[in-house]
Design goal:
The structure holds 2 protein chains of 2 kinds.
Chain A: H1 13-16, E1 25-33, H2 38-50, E2 53-59, E3 77-81, H3 85-88, H4 93-104, E4 113-116, H5 135-152, E5 156-159, H6 161-168, H7 175-181, H8 187-206, E6 212-215, H9 226-233, H10 238-252, E7 256-261, H11 265-274, E8 285-290, H12 295-306, E9 313-317, H13 320-329, E10 334-337, H14 343-351, H15 364-383, H16 387-394, E11 396-402, H17 408-417, E12 421-422, H18 430-438, E13 442-450, E14 455-467, E15 470-478, H19 487-501, E16 506-509, H20 518-527, H21 533-543, E17 549-553, E18 556-557
Parallel strand pairs in A: 1-2, 1-3, 3-4, 4-5, 6-7, 6-9, 7-8, 9-10, 11-17, 15-16
Antiparallel strand pairs in A: 11-13, 12-15, 13-14, 14-15, 17-18
Helix pairs in contact in A: 2-8, 4-5, 10-14, 15-16, 17-18, 19-21
Chain B: H1 2-12, H2 33-47, H3 53-58, H4 62-73
Helix pairs in contact in B: 1-2
Classes of the chains: A alpha/beta, B mainly alpha.
Chain lengths: ~550, ~70
């Protein structure tokens, strides 16, 4: 079965239920419920299979008091599947939320938690009543309050049943199911929610988001062939307008865009400038590779310039032969088939795993500037006589912060996103990062970097546990955008000097060999000459002779 | 039609064999109310038909399913 069928707008369970992919991970999902979840779990199987996972579900009894049993280490996700109607007549939204918080406090909050809200409009007669005199008002308030849980519990995500139901309209409600089984969701809403949980929410809670989308042009971003139809002949259909809008929004939420098209570069450039009805502009694309080379070669080149692995990229093309070729050449890349109308491409893209945004991420512009600045740095490096004169030309400023609570979200993101310079591959959850930040045994260092070409923001972190005279570096993370400028050496040098002044004598680094973290492991081998802190400082000092950057720890200026 | 219904029933009730006893709600404990609605929804999707609440409750065994589907397909 074509796996893209699972991503299409129209879904029929009987057509997808046979989809099976070999799974690489079992997910143990504990369902706390006052609403039957079996209908969802039945339908979720093919979608979980699409991300190479198998769901193992365990269910609570139907009990409105949610007597949660402790969640031990064997649970991967806790899912609350609640019929909130059962609470409406008994409690106001605010006390209900407070009570819910007490129940949630019994769950291991370092595990992802999913919890559903409730549709606001299912009764036909609702239009006869103002929200203030109807139960609808209760639901509005409760749904709003439920969203605020995310401020308090970092690992919570809301299953937005209200959004799906309102997009589907009355066909989302099934009065017959409600009467027979107290299950008001229609078959179609159940299927849509099963897909949303499996392909949007679960991947977003467990794995890093994709970093870039590489797009074909002809019959993908518009209808027509530029080389044959000319700029006047290509058409932006309604589906393509939607697609461009979705892509633009994704870019605003942290995903970089690039083009790989078999066209003349000048034609493409002219089209992007002249087509005023396009929602995507030339500047929206970090790279435009319009040429007659193989697309696999173009993508490899772009990955090199992006400085991240191809496995963080999604390639979209309408030509199955191009998709097959790219997939054959680069097996780890994600691929998606576009359709000629653009309409189905939109749905496939919206349902594609690893693209869901849980938090606002407006870093795409910053990253795009940084990547383009990196290209200029490569030019500067080739012109400079030696490495230090190249680094001096950059006029780098490195700031190191300790225990800065505003940086915790970024520490979590770095753990999820970095692959090459990720020493211990711990990929701490948001909850775990918060927990360590509050623990007095831990020191959380963050590193910011700016130079004459760009301000890169927070590009590195050190998570250190202090145990008497021993400092254990549990994790060291650096964005691939900052590598090659000895920022990791300079930062560690300053941190170790800070630690030795506080009585630390020995250092231990936690490291794990992964598929792509060779740069981090090589770096460690190079500097870890002995567990004695003074020896490592000496090794780093040797590496940093004449290092031409301004490096500061918090407010203490330490020009070198 | 009967064959398709049999397949759906066997799959949803997770049966190894389709004995008469297992195809009767009162004699098969695993054919509970959740499985029952799951079964009805699967049959509805397969044949593009719709059962009323009364009909859902009235179905007691596989023979009832055959009869209702046959009636609705006419």
């Amino acid at each position: 079965m074509q796996k893209d069928i699972l991503l299409n707008n129209e879904l029929m369970f009987r057509k997808i239920k046979g989809y099976k992919h070999e799974y690489t991970q079992q997910l143990i999902i504990k369902v706390e419920r006052t609403l039957p979840f079996e209908y969802v779990s039945k339908m979720i199987t093919p979608f979980l299979s699409r991300i190479e996972k198998e769901g193992i579900f365990s269910y609570s009894d139907y009990d409105t008091s949610i007597p949660i049993l402790s969640t031990n280490g064997e649970v991967d996700i806790v899912l609350f599947w609640m019929d909130w109607r059962l609470y409406m007549d008994k409690m106001e939204p605010k006390p209900l939320l407070e009570w819910l918080k007490t129940r949630l406090s019994e769950v291991d909050t370092s595990k992802p938690i999913l919890i559903n809200n409730w549709p606001t409009f299912w009764e036909l007669e609702e239009k006869q009543y103002a929200a203030s005199v109807s139960k609808r008002g209760w639901i509005y308030e409760f749904n709003y309050l439920l969203e605020t849980l995310k401020d308090e519990f970092n690992n919570i995500e809301i299953i937005d049943m209200n959004l799906f139901a309102s997009q589907m309209g009355m066909s989302s409600y099934d009065a017959r199911n409600d009467e027979v089984s107290n299950y008001p969701l229609s078959n179609q809403l159940t299927l849509q929610l099963a897909r949303h949980i499996a392909l949007n929410l679960i991947p977003a809670m467990l794995e890093p988001k994709l970093k870039a989308i590489v797009l074909d042009l002809d019959n993908t971003l518009y209808n027509g062939v530029l080389g044959e139809d000319g700029i006047e002949g290509i058409q932006l259909t309604e589906g393509h307008v939607q697609l461009q809008r979705v892509l633009k929004r994704m870019k605003e939420n942290g995903i970089l865009l690039a083009l790989s098209s078999k066209n003349n570069e000048q034609d493409v450039s002219e089209m992007l400038e002249k087509c005023k009805d396009f929602l995507l502009y030339k500047d929206d694309f970090t790279f435009i590779e319009a040429n007659w080379n193989s697309k696999a070669d173009n993508i490899r080149l772009m990955a090199e310039k992006f400085n991240f692995d191809v496995s963080a990229m999604l390639f979209i093309d309408d030509n199955p032969a191009e998709i097959a070729h790219v997939k054959e050449q680069i097996p780890t890349i994600h691929t998606l088939m576009a359709d000629a109308t653009g309409k189905e491409t939109v749905h496939r893209l919206l349902n594609y795993p690893y693209l869901y945004s849980r938090k606002k991420d407006n870093s795409a512009d910053l990253r795009q500037k940084d990547i383009l600045a990196n290209q200029k740095r490569v030019e500067l490096a080739s012109k400079a006589g030696d490495n230090n004169s190249y680094l001096a030309s950059l006029q780098m400023k490195i700031n190191i912060f300790e225990g800065e609570t505003q940086h915790l979200q970024r520490i979590y993101e770095l753990g999820q996103k970095t692959n090459q310079f990720n020493l211990a591959l711990q990929r701490f959850s948001e909850g775990e990062v918060q927990k360590k930040a509050k623990d007095s045994a831990y020191k959380m260092y963050t590193v910011t970097l700016s130079d004459m070409l760009n301000d890169s923001g927070i590009i590195g972190t050190f998570i250190v546990k202090i145990d008497g005279e021993l400092a254990i570096f549990e994790e060291i993370l650096f964005s691939c955008r900052a590598l090659g400028r000895k920022v990791e050496d300079a930062s560690l040098y300053l941190i170790l000097n800070e630690l030795i002044n506080k009585g630390i004598r020995q250092v231990k680094f936690v490291s794990v060999e992964g598929a792509r973290n060779t740069p981090a492991l090589d770096w460690l081998n190079n500097i870890y000459t002995s567990p004695i802190i003074a020896d490592i400082i000496a090794a780093l000092k040797e590496k940093l002779i004449d290092y031409p950057a301004e490096v500061c720890l918090q407010n203490e200026r330490d020009n070198k | 039609m009967k064959e398709t219904i049999n397949e759906i029933v066997i799959e949803i009730l997770e049966l190894d064999e389709a004995s008469e006893e297992l195809l009767d709600r009162e004699k098969n404990a695993t054919w509970d109310s959740i499985k029952h609605l799951e079964l009805i929804m699967a049959i509805e999707e397969e044949f593009d038909i719709r059962f009323t609440a009364t009909e859902v409750t009235a179905v007691k065994n596989i023979q009832d399913l055959y009869a209702y589907v046959e009636k609705k397909l006419v």
